[in-house]
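I'll show a typical protein example:
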Amino acid sequence: MPVQSKICGLSTPETLAAAIRHDAAYVGLVFFAKSPRHLDFDRAAALAAMVPGHVRKVGVVVNADDAFLDKAVVAAGLDVLQLHGSEAPERAAHLKSRYGLEIWKAIPVKTRADLDAAARYRAAVDRVLYDAKTPDAADLPGGMGLRFDWRLLEGFAHPLPWALSGGLDARNLAEAVGVTGAPLVDTSSGVESSPGVKDVDKIAAFLQSASQL
C-alpha cells in the first residue's frame, strides 16, 4: 500500500496549493500561539476553503480547551484533531465524542519505553503519531526538526494505526520508511526554509519522494 503523507504547519495559499498539487493526503493547520506556524481562525478558514474534499484537514492543538476547539473545528471544517500536548486518554475520548472527528495523539519518543504510552490510547483515539521528544525547556512540543532513533520501532507491536514524524525530509524519507515501515509520514520543518516558512520546492520534493516508496 502506498505511503501517505501529511504536510503540517501550512500557512499560505501558495504552500497549501503545492501540498495539494503534489498529492498530500493530509494538510495540517496549527492552532497554537507559541508556534511560528500558528493560524488565527480567519486565516485558517480562508486556507481551509482551498482544500478539496479528497484531502483531509488536520487541526494541530496543544492542551486546548473546548471553547477554543469549538471555534477551530468550525472555522477550518476540520476532519481530524491532532492532540500534541499532554492530553490524557480520557480527554481524547471526550473530544472524539464531542466532535465526532478522527482523533490523533502525538507520542513523544526518545527511548523504547516511550512507545508504551501508545497503548494507553487504544480505546480513545484513531491513530498515534510517533514524534521526537523535545527538550523539557522547549516552548514547542514538535516541529523543531528533531528525530528519534527509528530503530526503536523495529519489531514494535503497534496498538493502533500510526504515523511517523520528527525530522523527516526528502533526503531521509526513504531510509525512515525502510527502517520503520511507516504507512503515513508527517513533516513540517523538513519542508521549510526557516521556522514557519514553508518552501514549495521542498514540499514538492518530499511528496515526490513519498510517491516512490
